[in-house]
Amino acid sequence: MLGDVVVAGLLIAGVALELFCVLGVAVMRGPLDRLHYTGPAGVGALLIAGAILAREGFSLIANKGLLVAAFFLVTTPLLTHITARAARLRERGQLDIPPPEGPAEP
Amino acid sequence: MNEWIVAAVVLLIAAMLPLGLTCLLSDAIEGVVALSLAGVVATLVLLLLAEGFHRQPFVDLAVALAVMSFIGSVAFVRFLEGEL
Q1: What is the distance between the alpha carbons of residues A42 and A49, in angstroms, rounded to a whole number?
Q2: Distance in Å, alpha carbon of B1 to nearest chain A alpha carbon
Q3: Do B63 and A86 touch (CB under 8 A)?
Q4: Predicted confidence (pLDDT) per residue in A16-48, tens digit
């Protein structure tokens, strides 16, 4: 009984977190604003894998689910970083911030 | 139809449609953002289907899709960056 509640809670939380990410990516404007909402997707994958683990224990499906969740937890921030880098390069043509133009020194 | 299949169908409909529209209607780099999230969602749908139907090959598909969607997204980003 308690196990069913835990499984349902983890499953609903995982799906709701994924839908929240999708809503953020669909509604926001601009690549950097959208990128903020891709980060929690790995946590949603971990919640869903946890639901499978709570139901079945360490079965083959649960183990590979945990593997997929760990993979997303590692690669999602990496992908966010390189996408933000590409967005900045496309927007400004360079990564570095140019120094401000001050008055000429005597 | 158990709760795992319901969750998979909900994710498939409520997540893939907005992400597909974002890919179609937005700038290229914003489409890549939506594409990378769609890869995560598709992998989780396969994972949920594997649990719902108790079919272990679906989990292998999910593992393969996770790796391939990451590689595909990196390739798209590098292409848009001008490196490829």
Answers
A1: 11
A2: 15
A3: no
A4: 999 999 999 999 988 999 999 998 999 999 999
Q: How far apart are CA A2 and CA B23, in angstroms?
A: 41
| Residues in chain B, total | 84
Separation CA A22–CA B84 (nearest Å): 29
Q: Assign A3 a pLDDT band (cuts: 50, 70, 90).
A: confident
Which ipTM score applies to this complex?
A: 0.91
Torsional class of B55: left (φ above 0), alpha (ψ -120 to 50), beta (otherwise): beta
A38, amino acid identity: T
Contact B29 A31 (CB under 8 A): yes
How far apart are the C-alpha atoms of A23 and A2, rounded to whole Å? 31
Q: Which amino acid is at A11?
A: L
Residues of chain B in contact with residue A25, where contact means CB-CB under 8 angstroms, are 18-19, 22, 33-34, 37
Alpha helix stretches (DSSP H) within A28-100: 31-35, 41-56, 60-92
Tell me if A22 sits within 8 A of B37, measured CB to CB: yes
Alpha-carbon dihedral of residues A71, A76, A82, A87, nearest 10 degrees? 150
